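If your schedule permits, I should be very grateful for your opinion on a structural question. The matter concerns a single protein, recorded as an amino acid sequence and a row of backbone structure tokens. Could you please explain, in whatever detail you think fit, how the structure tokens follow from the sequence? I set the record out below, with my sincere thanks for your time.

——
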Amino acid sequence: MNFLIRHLYEQHLTDPRKEFFVLDDTVRPGILVLINEADWELEGEGKYELKENDNVLFVSTLHGG
């Protein structure tokens, strides 16, 4: 997962405010990460090694008011 997060951050995020996604080389608090519909905390977070056909979903729990 660490590789995927770094790849997304470095290659695909075009918004100059990348700190909204990454903080200290990991997904920032307020973003729920699901791997195959399970919280990534249960899978080892960034240490999880992605497998073929894994489904990864990033969901922001932050919103304006």
